[in-house]
Amino acid sequence: MATFTLQVNGESKTVAVDSDTPLLYILRNDLELNGPKFGCGLAQCGACTVLVDGKPVRSCVATVTSVAKGRITTIEGLGTLDRLHPLQRAFIEEQACQCGYCGNGMVMSAKALLDRNPRPSDRDVKAALNGHLCRCASHNRIVRAVQRAAAEMRS
Predict the structure, then answer these.
(1) For residue 128, what are the contacts with CB-CB under 8 A and spacing of at least 6?
(2) Tens-digit pLDDT profile for residues 108-130
(3) How many CA atoms lie within 13 A of 76 on its CB side?
(4) Hey, what domains does the chain have and what are their CATH numbers?
């Protein structure tokens, strides 16, 4: 076991874990952040996506050692119940998620997209979210939600 101090959602969090522990396990089990989901455990579905230094990372396969020096942002770090991030609000207003399982990853990857491209085309949105699996077939509503948030964030 080793001790790591992680920067998560703007706060320092210290954990004692094995150096090859996946970040997802630390976020959910040690830090009790349940936004990132365990989906496949193979970095194929996107449910576990978080941002590390603003870039989407599949936390189910990212070891604590690989992200320990980065700034980690989970969906809990985007907004609060009283003050939702525009992406969170848009996903709700567009009813973009049915079961909600893919929502975390979609929102986090959309956040990374909008940070680097505040005026994405629908094609850009689809490309940024291409690696995320959604079994509910909410894809059109998800694209609308990202475009709605992009417009709000520009104004």
Answers:
(1) 109, 110, 112, 113, 120
(2) 999 999 999 999 999 999 999 99
(3) 15
(4) 2-77 (3.10.20.30), 86-154 (1.10.150.120)
